[in-house]
Each structure stands twice: as structure tokens, then as C-alpha cells.
Please model this.
Amino acid sequence: MNIQNTAPETAHDELHAEIADRFDTTAMATETTLLNPRFYTTDFDELDRIDVSSVREDWDDLLAQMRSDPNKGHFKKTEEWDNIDWDGMEPKLKAELIDFLVSSCTAEFSGCVLYKEMKRRGKNPDICELFSYMSRDEARHAGFINDALREAGVAVNLGFLTKSKKYTYFRPKFIYYATYLSEKIGYARYITIYRHLEANPDKRFHPIFKWFREWCNDEFSHGEAFALLMRTDPKLTQSFVNKLWIRFFLTAVYSTMYVRDHARPAFHEAMGVDIDWYDQEVFRKTSEIARQVFPVELDIDHPRWMPNLKRMERAFRKMEAAEKQTGLARMLGKLTSGAQAGWAFVSLYTIPVKKNTPPESVRLEPAY
Model:
């Protein structure tokens, strides 16, 4: 819930009121754009028909691990949680940190909503048990981030978000591709930030980063679940058409991350991270992990890769600028920038992919 202070009595309350006036985080989370995290729905009857017998041993091992709930007590503030000087924080960094936290909270809560609905609508005991654990984990993640926002007086109203956020329908196989990549790239992002700040603690400008190691292991295990779900039906990763879809989702997820990260230059500068280096490092980790299940891998070292990511990023900035225009200028600006972004995406998508033969056993353990 957004905290509104109608009669601030302390400097801390006044700061909360000032930040709350500037940042309507519930509206930020509710907004639906190409770059914002989305809420998804799917064909729950098809999910209910999944037969995991072909991956039973790995499936039972994974669910036993999730059942043990290794991170049960992790998402709580301890003496390691530093006080945040919101008043002294550079305004651009403050804005980008809040944007990062809202985006992360929305993405985590989106997973919670989807997984909870899968559990509620299903009758398949294997699938229901899996999604009960994953919805539990994502609820903790979203709640923990929201607590960090609450300290600044700008927590997201998650109940309102559930009712007001637009839902996008995806067929189950598209849910697998998109969510698998979301979970694995989440692991790669969190562990890369964690390791960097572990080596450079003076750059850790918010305490939430200290929680990223165990947190990203939840993301990793969720990705393992979707890898097993894809392995239950070989056509999902082996047919010609589905290979094209996998290529599409890889390109879309990577390019979206690149554009989104470049919208937060002060955030990355404060961490002492070059955004191009960071994104390439995350892509590299994710690509290495995804060999467990995907038969194709993007060539992120190809000469067309980075130039077209930069073209797409510039196109989205122009698109944002066009949104602020009116009349013909707005329409032409959106058409031009949309065409530029589309052309950059096509150029990325048509980069020749690397072929890969996934291993017989799909299971992996976090290694970074």
C-alpha cells in the first residue's frame, strides 16, 4: 500500500511525503508498456495435462529441494540492513533506484500471481505442488522489495495491482520460454551484481543487494522447473518452428534487458558498473545456463550484435520523447522510432545462431 502522510511531524515523515508526492509507484507498476514487466495468463487445462514421468527422478529431486524451503528465513531484515539516507541521495540515483525496485517488485509479483493461479486452477498434483512453492517464493521476493520501498514511503499497492494490471495471454509453451529465461536471467543479473559488490562493498548504496545471493538461487531453481517442463515434450525445443520461437524469445528478452538497463545510467554508475559490460556478462551467463535445454544460442559476439542493441536503445529513447509531443509530431515520432526499433530487432534476430545439443540430464546447480 502507498503510505500517505497527511501531517508529517518529523523530518523522516516529511521526506516520505516528498518522495510519495513525486513517485506514484502503484501507477508505475500498473502501467503497461513494451519494457515494463507484464502479468500473464495461460491455458491452465493444458498445464494440467502435463506428464512428468519422463523426468521423474530429476522432478522429485527438485521438488524435495523446494519442499525443504532453504530460504524460509532469508527475506527478513537483520542487523546487516543499513539505514538508507534517502534525503542525502542524489536525486537521479534516487529516481532510478525506485524505478529499479518497482520494476523488480512488479516482475516478482507477476510470477507470484501466475504461479498461484496455476496452483488454484489445477488438479495435477505434480504441477500444483511445484507452483505452490514457486508462488510462495515469489511472494516473499515481492514483499521484501516492497518493504524496501515502504521505507521511502512509496510501497506498491499489490492488492490494487492484481485487479488493475492488464493481463497478457500466452500459450503454455510461450510461458515456458519466457518464464524460463526470466528466471535464469534473473539469477544471472542478481549474482553478477552480488559478486561485483562483494568485491566492491563501497559501491553498495542500498542494503538489499546483500540479500541477492540466496535470492538468486530461488530464481535458479524456478528456471530448473521450467527446463524440466520443457523436457517433458521434446517438440517444445526440437521442432523447427519452436526453435524459431526460442530464438525470438532469446532476442526479445536480451534486447529488452539492454534497453531497460540503459535507462538507469546513474544506478549503474553508482555501483561502479559499465552497463555494456554488465549486460554482456549477464547474457553470457544466461546463454551458458540455457544450453541445458535450448538447442540454439545467440551469438552475442557477432559484429551486428552490439551495434543493433545500441540502435534499439536509441529508438526507444526517441519513442519516449515522441510520447511527450502532440499531434503530427507525436505520430511521426512514434512511427519513425517504432520502425527503427523493429529494424534493429530484425537485424538481431537474423544473426546466425550457435547450435547446441542439450545434455541428457537437464538439472544444473548454481555455479557463479
User: Anything to note?
Assistant: The first helix runs from residue 11 to 22. The beta strands are 39-41, 167-169, 296-297, 354-355. The chain has 15 helices and four strands.
